[in-house]
Amino acid sequence: MINLHILKQSTVVHLCFAISYFTSGLILTFIQAILYFGLKPFNKSLYRKINYYLSYSFYSQLVFMSEWWSNSKLSIYIKKDEYEKFYGKEHGYLIMNHSYEIDWLMGWHFCNTIGVLGNCKAYAKKSIQYLPPIGWMWKFSEFVFLERSFEKDKETIKYQISELCDYPDPVWLLMTPEGTRYTKKKHEASLSFAKEKNLPLLKHHLTPRTRGFTTSLQFFRGKIPVIYNIQLAFEKDSKTPPTLTSLLYGKPVHAHLYIERIPVERVPEDEAEAAKWLHDLFVVKDKMQDSFFNTGDFFLESGVERREPFSVPPPIWSLVNALGWAVVTLTPMLYYLLGLLFSGKLLYFSIGCGIFGAFFILLQKSIGMSKISQGSSYGTEKK
What we know:
This is Fatty alcohol acetyltransferase. This protein is of the alpha/beta class. It contains 13 helices and seven strands. The protein has two domains: 19-316, Glycerol-3-phosphate (1)-acyltransferase, CATH 3.40.1130; 321-362.
């Protein structure tokens, strides 16, 4: 009988994940490229509907690791009436804390349950768009790529938000105003900046950069109806660290996701007042995080209205999609690669080893990119 625990620890199985993920990614981005240049100029709406499923097919392979492979748990704190009436049925602008290596994946985990995973968008560094396959996928999916040069980024934000608001189906656009993941060193730099500018001192977050938000706000006001304030936390003393490596090894994590639906009309129109609104929001987020770390509860010490947690069973489609791609990609790839290894010829054996090695390196590099230590520095916007 197969021991699932040993199977999930196996480097061979992880290598199979890598082969399936990267090979399917190249196939999907190739299809995207054909449609991007051949269909989008003539029918944007149809292109975007098809691209939803192409993006979903790629993203859900990672969501599969959270939902099925590791059997991770997601506790959701949302007003039940709003969840049933609005979630997954409207465009949304997301403001989320950026504290963990897999905060984005837990967001995708949730988005998969409400049917918007394929239309999840985000702000990203421009250099990422050149990295296959994820960067290519994001480029063809119309992510907002920024250079950290405000004059250039302002025009990019204006154009991309206009494009995203024109989508036929709900789009969720993610912004992490902290700009980079929380670390002790970055937090020290953030506190120095906050003291210098007489801004609130945050204990568990970096001082948010407001210019990207206020610039975006003027372009999406009247087009995107709501802002979703998202707070993610994991138990501070959990035995399993919330990392991509943990999920790859089949180790479950337990994420706690609070979401508040805020109509855009509540945000002041004046730029300075809107910036203050964002700072005030992060003060509340900081109190919630502090309460969670102290008590295991977002609400006990924060003063925020209590919402009882609930969980949603994972949709079967991420499992079906991952297994489908495993069959489609691994069957020919392993047949070819094993043929090289057992050909009896040194050259073919070396080529086979080289290809396996390349997939293994891609896997390690991808995991490395998600690590907190690889995040950008705090406060390095170009002038």
